[in-house]
Each structure stands twice: as structure tokens, then as C-alpha cells.
């Protein structure tokens, strides 16, 4: 099982679009995929469920919020697998063997971040806290349960921050993937994000030793929402993409163009764009190629 956190400090960069479509394309190839929504905005969740369905069926007992509540309790942490959902519209379009599951988020997940920080003695996540390893490792330990052994891929949609819930996602991950628009604000924090991940890995491993340590690998940047002029990206986009090359950051060869019509329609149908029948072939091809490159980069 390969676990990947999808994260960028900047919101609105296509992070959820990449997570949903990458997961859907992998499942369309016969793989068993779990999506985990750790973003309080819950955009990934609402890619598969309407707000009404979420409020009626999920909000009060079937989201990651309730599970993190058990992490904070003095009693043993609840198993995570009862919170797994299987969105019907998407799975109806998958071949035999393919599966796309989801652990939904909650708008109040931001409160859990504050509670987790308080449990560690404040917002600086003190390394001396007796709860440091248990809290940071909570999601990793939960995903190590036998019930998750059948998944090929787990994709974690992280919030655009580096607070405690995000940190539990990073600790659980084998890989880090960063979607970014080719503009100033979206690319500004890429190098800083890598430094924060390195800092977390160093601090965690210092406390964990001689026990199990972590070493999430940075897969690279995926450029999204690219505007085209003729046969290629506009000049401004090309310039910012070249700037990222100068940072010596790994960059995916495949990029994803902007297509508000396709992605908007997909959201209304509760389907990732890559599964929408008779949709824009160029965009779907790009998403399929991204999945191929992702698999090549994550294979041992």
C-alpha cells in the first residue's frame, strides 16, 4: 500500500481536483483506492456527496472529525475502517476489481487542530510532550490496521497549512505531492513547504528513535489550471514553471489545463472529471497521463 499526502500552502490550486481525479483514474485501472479528506473545507468530500447528503447521512457520525475525537479521548482510539464510505456514482463506472473509497471530512475539523495542539502543550507542538508520538502517529497507526491492507493507494487531501491534522497525514505518508498553479503565490511556498516537511521528519525521528522512523519522499510539483494559447501554455505560465525548475524541485512532466466547464459539470454530477462520459478528451488524457507518471514515481 502506497500512501501519498497531497498538499500546498496555497488554496485554490486544484489540490482537491488532482486528488479526486488521480484516485479515480487509479481505480479505473483496477486498483483499490482510498481517499482521506483532512481539509476542513471538505471539498473532496463534496466532490462525491451533496451538502444535503453530507448533512443528513455523514456529518454527525461518519466523518474523520468523530475519529479524531476518539484520538483525543483518554480511551483507546476508535478503529478507522468504520468511517470508510463507497460513493456509488463513481464506483458504478469502475471496472471489476477497481474501487474508490472515501473517508469524509467535516467543517469543524479546524477545532480538532486546536485541541490536538493543546494536548501537546501549545501551538509549537512540544517534543517533550508524552503525547507527541501517539498523536503524530495516530493516522499512520490506524491505516496500518488489517482492514486497510487490501488498498493499493491511499491519497490524503491535506489542508493548506501545517497544523496538527496535516502533520498526522504527513507522518502516515510514504510520499508528498504538491499541486500548484503556475503563478507567483502558488509557487512561492513550495520550497518552504519542503523545509517544513524536513523539519517535521527530523523532529519526529529524533523523538521516535530507536523505534520506527519516517521518511516521506517528495514526488514533486504538478502544475494545474494552466491556461493555453494555441498549442502550449501562455508565456506567464511557462515563466513560473521555469522558476520552479530553478529551485531544483522535482516537477511532473504532465500538466493539467484549466477547464472550468468540465470540472464544474463533474462536481455537479458528484463524479471526478476523468470518469465523466464523453467529456473533454484532452483534459481526460492529461489526467490519465498524470496517473501513469504517478505510478512510475511511486513504484519501489
TrEMBL record:
InterPro entries: AAA_dom (IPR025669), DNA_Partitioning_ATPase (IPR050678), P-loop_NTPase (IPR027417)
Name under which the protein is recorded: Chromosome partitioning protein
Domain called AAA: residue spans: 2-205
PANTHER family tied to this protein: P-LOOP CONTAINING NUCLEOSIDE TRIPHOSPHATE HYDROLASE (PTHR13696), PARA FAMILY PROTEIN CT_582 (PTHR13696:SF52)
Source organism of the structure: Micromonospora mirobrigensis
Pfam families per record: AAA_31
The organism's taxonomic lineage, starting at the top: Bacteria, Bacillati, Actinomycetota, Actinomycetes, Micromonosporales
Amino acid at each position: 500500500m502506497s500512501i501519498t499526502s497531497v498538499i500546498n500552502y496555497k488554496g485554490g490550486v486544484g489540490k482537491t481536483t488532482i486528488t479526486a481525479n488521480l484516485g479515480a483514474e487509479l481505480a479505473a485501472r483496477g486498483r483499490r483506492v482510498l481517499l482521506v479528506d483532512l481539509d476542513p473545507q471538505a471539498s473532496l468530500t463534496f466532490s462525491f456527496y451533496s451538502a444535503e447528503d453530507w448533512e443528513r447521512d455523514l456529518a454527525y457520525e461518519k466523518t474523520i472529525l468523530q475519529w479524531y475525537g476518539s484520538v483525543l479521548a483518554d480511551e483507546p482510539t476508535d478503529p478507522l475502517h468504520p468511517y470508510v464510505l463507497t460513493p456509488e456514482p463513481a464506483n458504478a463506472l469502475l471496472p471489476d476489481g477497481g474501487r474508490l473509497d472515501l473517508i469524509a471530512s467535516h467543517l469543524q475539523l479546524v477545532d480538532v487542530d486546536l485541541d490536538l495542539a493543546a494536548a501537546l502543550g501549545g501551538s509549537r507542538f512540544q517534543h517533550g510532550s508524552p503525547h507527541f508520538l501517539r498523536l503524530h502517529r495516530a493516522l499512520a497507526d490506524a491505516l496500518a490496521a488489517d482492514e486497510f491492507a487490501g488498498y493499493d493507494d491511499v491519497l490524503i487531501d491535506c489542508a493548506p497549512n501545517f497544523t496538527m491534522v496535516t502533520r498526522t497525514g504527513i507522518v502516515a505518508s510514504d510520499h508528498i505531492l504538491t499541486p500548484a498553479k503556475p503563478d507567483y503565490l502558488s509557487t512561492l511556498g513550495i520550497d518552504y513547504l519542503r523545509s517544513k516537511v524536513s523539519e517535521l521528519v527530523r523532529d519526529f525521528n529524533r523523538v521516535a528513535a530507536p523505534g520506527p522512523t519516517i521518511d516521506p519522499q517528495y514526488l514533486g510539483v504538478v502544475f494545474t489550471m494552466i491556461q493555453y494559447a494555441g498549442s502550449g501554455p501562455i508565456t506567464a505560465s511557462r515563466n513560473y514553471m521555469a522558476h520552479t525548475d530553478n529551485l531544483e524541485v522535482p516537477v511532473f512532466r504532465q500538466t493539467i489545463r484549466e477547464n472550468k466547464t468540465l470540472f464544474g459539470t463533474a462536481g455537479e454530477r458528484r463524479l471526478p472529471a476523468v470518469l465523466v462520459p464523453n467529456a473533454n478528451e484532452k483534459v481526460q488524457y492529461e489526467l490519465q497521463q498524470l496517473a501513469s507518471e504517478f505510478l512510475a514515481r511511486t513504484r519501489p
